[in-house]
């Protein structure tokens, strides 16, 4: 077990160094966690490099016999906490959560208690996205056209503030594999259903399984990410090391490890984020790829329409599309209040409503109330939260997408 811990610290720290080095220092927008004051987030960002260097040094120490020293593990967890706090605000993806949660779980002593928490983290990592797909995309998400839309989106379109050199390296995309799937509907359907089945079966193994089930679940979960990366152009770099640490050690093989008090608290916290599709930090519902094909088509039709703005001061408008920011990668984000302003889960049936002034008013009200996005443009109003939207004309091509 000690060697497994050392290996995890070594591998994860090397990945973290590359991951956090791409914090997004040029990002024109910071995504403010709902609880965090602006001054705290901007102040933490100034010390971001120090957090990253400390994380790297502590991680290398923990890859030695010093892995048993609690205060070193605690300091490492704190550095991960601070670095991921800033990285989430600047980048906005979900790839770091499994690493962040695992680093905190490593504060527990080795054994069944820690293993129970780690099993639940893996169940959340794969199960929460599956639940949110059905909550948001509904039964239509099960149609293979959903995967087709995701692949076409990854194949043809680049979004702002991308790519991240670790999460979205340009070389990971394989147009040949994408085109092969798009040409053969049976292959597309097979991969679509196999992906969802893998997510659900891994969750069942984490919640109910023993040694054999967990070994198969680990292999299936790792294969899921390896096959998805070239098709969708997205890498979850921390997932495979965290899956192995959680599911392979002997202390994880007894399902009774899930009944410890820390495991029950973990289940309550992570389960709540799934139920409410929380898009926040440090707790997040991981609503990854939640939209069905029809919803994606409608969302693309309003890309570029609702632009972040300030209600006062100059310059007022930003040129940054709120919907693109909220939907993000391929699309991979879900802000429930943004979705509600668009008409809820049925917005795919109301393309005309999405172009109305009512939507702009609801989006402005949401921004004024939550102040979730901070202007960081050098030529904007740095440090001030966007609290309004302006409506821009969109191209006829975009309008036809939603027709």
Automatic annotation (TrEMBL):
This is CmdD protein. The keyword Transmembrane helix applies. The keyword Membrane applies. The chain crosses the membrane at residues 50-73, 85-108, 186-214, 226-248, 260-278. Keywords: Membrane, Transmembrane, Transmembrane helix. The gene is cmdD.
């Amino acid at each position: 077990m000690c060697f497994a811990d050392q290996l995890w610290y070594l591998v994860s720290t090397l990945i973290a160094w590359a991951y956090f080095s791409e914090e997004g220092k040029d990002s024109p927008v910071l995504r403010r966690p709902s609880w965090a004051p602006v001054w705290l987030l901007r102040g933490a960002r100034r010390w971001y490099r120090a957090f990253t260097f400390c994380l790297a040094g502590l991680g290398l120490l923990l890859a030695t016999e010093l892995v048993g020293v609690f205060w070193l593990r605690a300091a490492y967890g704190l550095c991960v906490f601070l670095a991921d706090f800033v990285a989430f605000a600047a980048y906005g993806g979900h790839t770091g959560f499994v690493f962040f949660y695992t680093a905190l779980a490593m504060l527990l002593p080795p054994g069944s208690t820690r293993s129970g928490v780690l099993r639940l983290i893996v169940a959340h990592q794969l199960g929460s996205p599956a639940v949110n797909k059905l909550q948001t995309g509904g039964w239509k998400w099960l149609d293979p056209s959903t995967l087709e839309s995701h692949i076409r989106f990854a194949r043809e379109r680049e979004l702002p503030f991308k790519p991240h050199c670790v999460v979205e390296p340009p070389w990971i995309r394989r147009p040949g594999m994408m085109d092969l799937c798009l040409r053969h509907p049976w292959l597309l359907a097979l991969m679509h259903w196999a992906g969802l089945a893998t997510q659900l079966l891994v969750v069942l193994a984490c919640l109910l399984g023993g040694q054999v089930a967990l070994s198969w679940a680990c292999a299936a979960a790792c294969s899921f990410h390896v096959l998805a990366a070239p098709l969708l152009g997205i890498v979850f770099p921390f997932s495979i090391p965290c899956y192995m640490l959680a599911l392979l050690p002997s202390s994880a093989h007894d399902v009774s490890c899930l009944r410890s008090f820390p495991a029950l608290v973990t289940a309550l916290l992570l389960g709540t984020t799934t139920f409410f599709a929380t898009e926040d930090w440090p707790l997040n519902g991981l609503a990854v790829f939640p939209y069905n094909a029809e919803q994606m088509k409608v969302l693309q039709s309003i890309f570029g329409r609702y632009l972040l703005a300030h209600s006062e001061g100059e310059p007022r408008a930003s040129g940054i599309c709120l919907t693109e920011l909220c939907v993000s990668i391929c699309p991979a984000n879900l802000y429930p209040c943004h979705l509600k302003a668009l008409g809820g889960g049925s917005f795919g049936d109301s393309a005309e409503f999405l172009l109305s002034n009512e939507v702009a008013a609801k989006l402005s009200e949401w921004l004024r109330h939550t102040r979730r996005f901070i202007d960081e443009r050098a030529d904007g109003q740095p440090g001030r939260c966007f609290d309004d939207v302006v409506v821009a004309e969109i191209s006829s091509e975009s309008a036809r997408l939603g027709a």
